[in-house]
Design brief:
- The chain has about 375 residues and is of the alpha/beta class.
- Helix content is about 30%, strand content about 25%.
- It contains 12 helices and 16 strands.
- The strands form 3 sheets. Strands 11-10-9-8-12-6-13-16-15 form a 9-stranded mixed sheet, with helices on both faces. A 5-stranded mixed sheet has the order 2-1-3-4-5, sandwiched between helices.
- Helix 3 (about 90-95) runs parallel beside helix 4 (about 115-120).
């Protein structure tokens, strides 16, 4: 590996780290990182800001100022070339006078998809692509999936006993896992656009479903959207997610047969109602996924309960699992982490591959990605 290639890898690693800061806050845009380098010195850094604007390139160029001229820009996603609420990033890079742009991966958005790189080349800027491409694809897998398939990336989180139980038969579940696992769970909330649960979880636990990490409790604008699946609109106006809906975005996905008066009351309290028209028991998860994709969500964290988790697994929508396990046994009368999947033979079972395992105090965390079918 040449010194130049090593330098590219190092600076792109820096840009990817910056991009990760925006995960969960940039809807409907991807989270992008950018580093401006001149004479071996980083002159400017930037990442996509909350709400998706300003873009990473704009932020980095502003910090670099005049030092951007004849510099190299390292960008984790192909710079945009279309006019949106802000000017194209390609125009900003050209106007700043950068001499080279290093891009990790192309942007699958039909409005870009190669045209950004083409515009930069046409302006005489040297282009290098594919640097740490696989890392960039993993980081923005949610945006890429939504752009290509119309649905977000769904990550399933469960905190269970060693025998896969998330609560006693009575419903008691606080706390199966320890403090370290719970902190990591809040980190997951921070890096996802939305938290999704079923109405049964709301009725049983009355959770607030907010991220309690520093910086989130003080600023409700960066809290993830709370999504509740409630076909029969059973949720009560006294539920915590409803009472706080005016401050933290709360969406309830229900059926077209929902009581209009209750819909109106919830809307008056600040809840947004999404109608899953024509959805049956079997298709409710798929229709919900499409609705959330239309709303621009890139990354959704499924937090329960067992039936909701099973419905998304049966629909083939779960891309990743975060499985927290505590060193305890609850037994067969406890509530399972995953509801019935109606699997007739093992070959039909959803298969995942472990990409990471962590020890969090007394607990363990398995991070599993969907195993591609051959």
């Amino acid at each position: 590996m040449s010194a130049s290639e090593a330098g590219d890898l190092g600076y792109m690693t820096n840009a990817l780290a910056l991009a990760s800061r925006g995960l969960g806050t940039t809807v409907p845009n991807p989270s992008v990182g950018c580093v401006i380098v001149k004479d071996g010195i980083i002159r400017g850094r930037g990442w996509t800001q909350p709400g998706g604007r300003p873009h990473a390139e704009t932020e980095a160029l502003a910090r670099a100022g005049d030092d951007a001229k004849d510099a190299t820009a390292y960008v984790t996603l192909e710079p945009c070339s279309h006019q949106g609420q802000t000017a194209p990033c390609t125009e900003a890079l050209i106007a700043a006078g950068v001499s080279r742009v290093v891009v990790a991966t192309s942007d699958p958005d039909a409005r870009v998809n190669g045209s950004g790189i083409a515009a930069l080349k046409a302006a005489g800027i040297e282009i290098t692509t594919g640097v740490l491409e696989s890392d960039a694809i993993v980081l923005n897998a949610g945006f890429i999936k939504r752009t290509r398939q119309g649905v977000p990336l769904f990550a399933l989180k469960s905190a269970s006993s060693m025998d896969g139980r998330i609560a006693l038969a009575s419903g008691a579940s606080q706390w199966i896992t320890g403090e370290g696992a719970r902190r990591y769970g809040h980190l997951l909330r921070a890096t996802h656009d939305a938290i999704l649960v079923g109405s049964g979880t709301v009725q049983a636990d009355n959770p607030s479903l907010i991220c309690r990490l520093p910086g989130f409790t003080e600023n409700t604008a960066v809290q993830p959207v709370r999504v509740v699946l409630d076909r029969r609109l059973r949720i009560d106006a006294t539920a915590e997610v409803v009472k706080s809906a005016s401050g933290v975005p709360t969406w309830i996905v229900t059926s077209e047969s929902a009581d209009p008066e209750k819909v109106k009351k919830l809307q008056e309290l600040g809840v947004e109602i999404l109608m899953a028209e024509g959805a049956s028991d079997l298709t409710f998860a798929s229709v919900t996924a499409s609705l959330l994709g239309e709303k621009g969500l890139n990354r959704v964290l499924i937090e329960g309960g067992g039936q909701v988790s099973a419905s998304f697994l049966k629909a083939g929508l779960v891309d990743r699992i975060y499985g927290f396990r505590a060193p305890m046994v609850i037994g067969g009368d406890g509530r399972p982490a995953i509801g019935e999947l109606d699997i007739g033979q093992l070959s039909d079972a959803p298969r995942f591959k472990r990409v990471e395992m962590r020890v969090l105090g007394p607990d363990t965390l398995d991070i599993l990605d969907l195993k591609p079918t051959v």
